[in-house]
Specification:
2 copies of one chain form a homodimer. By secondary structure, chain A is of the alpha/beta class. Chain A has a domain of 128 residues: ATPase, nucleotide binding domain (Nucleotidyltransferase, domain 5), CATH 3.30.420. Chain A contains 11 helices and 10 strands. In chain A, strands 3-2-1-4-5 form a 5-stranded mixed sheet. A 5-stranded mixed sheet of chain A has the order 8-7-6-9-10, sandwiched between helices. In chain A, helix 10 links the parallel strand 9 and strand 10. The longest helix of chain A has 24 residues. The radius of gyration of chain A is 21 Å and the shape is globular. At the A-B interface, helix 2, strand 8, helix 4, helix 5 and helix 7 of A face helix 2, strand 8, helix 4, helix 5 and helix 7 of B.
């Protein structure tokens, strides 16, 4: 029997799966729709997961077997959210692919694993949502943010997008000086002016992903020197810094060599990443920024392999 | 036939109806659930409206007849929102109560009518949502805000409540100094700490009204001298002022005697109203604040009567 390891990165937009061999070679990859249960229901999520795993195993030899699978799932913060996802996913993987060994973890865990082996490590994720998670060599862990759009998500694509909408309307109704965002939002929704934008926004209400897509509009305006866009992005940087500061302080990592893994579409933009790193290093000089060169599903597959090796010891 | 006039104030939480006689005496009042179609569906809204009107007409003499009804409806900003509400409401009122003459207007219109007869008048509403609407003696009108939670609603109960949640979490995860809001939010949701608050917030997601209710928590913390609460409320005051400034400038009312009608649960709090008035009067000395002493349904009934008299001329 040829052993295989499966890494799964489940999100609110898409699910990515990587199958690795014992020697670390890619056997296959899979891509499907959302498996985050705040974005979709259990049935649809199981279906997406099944399809992505099927793709990843398509070219595997018939006498191979997945000995361990790790899934990192976004938006899974409480015990009940864990249970809601674990049961159906574990069952489906067992039935469809004979996978007995399934581990479900918060998506920040695989992002951290993907970027660092250092016992002192912090990961800042800013994509649709935002979160910071860290660990130290005492075995402690801490997190900040990561509780979705009503409670947190400062410095995320969603929050940038929501600010874009609100500053565009302020420009339209005279509550602030004109900003380019007004015209760019009209273009984005293909409308003439903001008079009737309510239909586009609320019928049905924009999803979190659709709001987060407006971060692109903000970047476009920023690169064209729009001051409202610059304010929004600088504010987002400050909020990302607060996320990291809180975790660094709680783990006592102020002066210890620590990896800072940066993950997610927003923080990976150079004009967001560089000022955030500079401002954090000015405070915490032992912080080493890491931008993973592979997607998080590699971290998940790596973790699947490591957990198997550790279990054998 | 004894003529009656009906005033209806329809909102996202409740619907209030007032029946007035020709001489301005109250014939009856009615109270029921929401009729705002962003909070409920057309069937439930029609049912609520019917029940509130039935209550208001219960004690009317058998030989009386409603000659005109005016309904102010919150959240009705576009032509399609108007049509979606007008058709079923007009039909129900005709079938159930033989009311032929039904006028549907934005809720700010009845709030303005309730507070001012001045041709130069501005109304600032801050309740669950926020909006400013004004008119001038040239026949122009203008508005700012009033496009619901994703696009506007700065300075509203919803926005204050959302800030309360976010500052409470920041206090919990170490992104800001401790604020009393953390403990008060726990009390509000009857939980021990904020670790597992996600269940209360997202399953199902809090409604706009439920978020706005957290403004009470903010006021409680403010009155106990909490600095986070003070920041949130001062920010809300600044945003209310921006709403009014935009309308005053667009209508050229900077130096003209103008009524400023203040309506809604948030701006009616003395510690919110007084600083907003003081800061606006420092800029626009001809502004006269008006706090209506009767609910907006009086403005609606008054308007119903005025429209009938004007039609007879």
């Amino acid at each position: 029997m040829i052993p295989l390891y499966l890494g799964i990165d489940g999100g609110g937009t898409k699910t990515e799966v990587l199958c690795l061999s014992e020697t670390g070679e890619t056997v296959g990859t899979g891509l499907s729709g959302p498996t985050n249960l705040t974005s979709t229901n259990t049935g649809a999520a199981s279906f997406s997961l099944k399809e992505a795993v099927r793709q990843a195993l398509e070219k595997a030899s018939p006498d191979s077997q997945v000995v361990s699978a790790v899934m990192g799932l976004a938006g899974m913060d409480t015990q009940s959210e864990y249970e809601m996802a674990f049961q159906p996913f574990a069952e489906m993987l067992k039935t469809a692919f004979k996978i007995e060994n399934f581990h479900l973890v918060h998506d920040s865990v695989i992002a951290l694993e993907n970027g660092s082996n250092n016992p002192n490590a912090v990961v800042l994720i800013s994509g649709t949502g935002s979160i910071c998670v860290g660990r130290n060599d005492q075995g402690d862990s801490a997190r900040s943010g990561g509780m979705d759009y009503l409670l947190t998500d400062q410095g995320s694509g969603y929050d940038i997008g929501r600010h874009v909408l609100r500053e565009a309307i302020k420009s339209f109704d005279g509550r602030r000086p004109k900003t380019m965002l007004e015209q760019l939002v009209c273009q984005h929704f293909e409308i003439e002016n903001l008079e009737n934008i309510k239909m586009q926004i609320y019928h049905p209400p924009l999803s979190k992903v659709e709001v987060a897509e407006l971060a692109k509009v903000c970047c476009e305006a920023y690169l064209a020197n729009d001051s409202a866009a610059r304010q929004i992005l600088e504010w987002a940087q400050t909020e990302m810094i607060k996320l990291v500061e809180a975790v660094v302080h709680r783990l006592g990592l102020e002066h210890k060599p620590t990896d800072l893994v940066l993950s997610g579409s927003i923080i990976q933009l150079e004009f967001m990443r560089l000022p955030v790193i500079a401002r954090l290093q000015a405070q915490f000089s032992a912080l080493t920024p890491v931008v993973p060169d592979r997607p998080s599903m590699y971290g998940a597959a790596q973790l699947a392999k490591r957990l198997t090796l550790e279990a054998k010891r």
